């Protein structure tokens, strides 16, 4: 039996969809803090268990009988280490056979401040003694393509990544990798550095959006503080604006580049090119 935490989220839903191609729904458990949010999974025969990263007893119950657990990292940045520690401790109490964790590309050396909680979680995993596998996910292409409508509105992609190259992949590619690892044998002890097959700079992304839309779109590189201010002015909460700006600075330092192609090797196909992700957003209107 495989338990997927964060199953109500975007990645979790894609992982379950991917697993359902190979295993019966009766072998999957969606662990979520709000069971009402996944009625569609119940309708497909997936068991749903209540699991809140902040409430250890819910986690122990959710992991009962699990052969494998996928810990999808929490979206509550700043709270993640204690939350993930609760999950790891509960997995140990439940005697889980394999714990897979979605980390960040090169968690041990990344210049992105976001990486610290992942690095600490990985350390906690090692110390726990639980057989585990680490999926160090690179950037989702969706982090950038979500801003395509804004780029078209202003004729500009804004950022502070300079000429840093970004080896992103579609969220669905990372979900396929998680499913592949959960379905494979002999994964304990493995650490995967997962990223897209190709890389691009934000100038190249702007050109791609311009070429596909037929509109003039350029890249406007800003100092980090100005980019942060622009994001806040556009309505983003300050912590999110801060996180995006810091991550772009990390990208400028090479933190989102990788050419190891471990992701495509794991999923047995090429990763989704950024041009395709842009095309999908434009087609959706
Ligand atoms: N690699 C990247 O580019 C990238 C980008 C963004 C995020 N991430 C990381 O990858 C994770 C998965 O991405 P995503 O796109 O699926 O994010 P998402 O759609 O925001 O999903 C986050 C999931 O975490 C769950 N969660 C948050 N706090 C929780 C708690 N206290 N107890 C139990 N569950 C909790 C959410 O549950 P609810 O549905 O109840 O809110 C949701 O299921 C994120 O959480 C974040 O750590 C990576």
UniProtKB/TrEMBL annotation:
Highest taxon of the lineage: Bacteria
Gene3D superfamilies for the chain: NAD(P)-binding Rossmann-like Domain, UDP-galactose 4-epimerase, domain 1
InterPro entries found in the cross-reference section: NAD(P)-bd_dom (IPR016040), NAD(P)-bd_dom_sf (IPR036291), NmrA-type_oxidoreductase (IPR052718)
Domain NAD(P)-binding: 6-182
Full protein name: NAD(P)-dependent oxidoreductase
The species this protein was found in: Marinobacterium zhoushanense
């Amino acid at each position: 039996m495989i338990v997927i935490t964060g199953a109500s989220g975007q990645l979790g839903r894609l992982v379950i969809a991917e697993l359902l191609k190979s295993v019966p729904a009766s072998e999957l458990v969606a662990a979520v803090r709000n069971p009402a949010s996944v009625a569609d999974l119940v309708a497909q025969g997936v068991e749903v268990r209540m699991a809140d990263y902040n409430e250890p007893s819910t986690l122990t119950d959710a992991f009962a009988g699990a052969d494998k657990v996928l810990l999808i990292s929490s979206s509550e940045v700043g709270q993640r280490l204690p939350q993930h520690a609760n999950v790891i401790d509960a997995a140990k109490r439940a005697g889980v056979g394999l714990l897979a964790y979605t980390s960040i590309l090169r968690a041990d050396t990344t210049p992105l401040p976001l990486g610290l909680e992942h690095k600490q979680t990985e350390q906690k995993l090692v110390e726990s003694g639980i057989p585990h596998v680490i999926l160090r996910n690179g950037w989702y292409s969706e982090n950038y393509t979500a801003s395509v409508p804004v780029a078209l509105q202003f004729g500009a992609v804004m950022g502070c990544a300079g000429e840093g190259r970004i080896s992103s992949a579609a969220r669905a590619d990372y979900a396929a990798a998680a499913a592949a690892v959960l379905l494979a044998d002999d994964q304990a002890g493995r650490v995967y550095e997962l990223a897209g097959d190709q890389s691009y700079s934000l100038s190249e992304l702007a050109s791609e959006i311009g070429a596909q839309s037929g509109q003039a779109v350029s890249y406007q590189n800003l100092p980090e503080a100005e980019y942060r201010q622009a994001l806040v002015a556009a309505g983003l909460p300050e912590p999110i604006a801060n996180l995006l700006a810091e991550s772009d600075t990390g990208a400028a330092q090479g933190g989102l580049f990788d050419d190891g192609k471990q992701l495509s090797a794991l999923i047995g196909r090429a990763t989704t090119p950024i041009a395709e992700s842009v095309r999908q957003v434009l087609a959706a209107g």
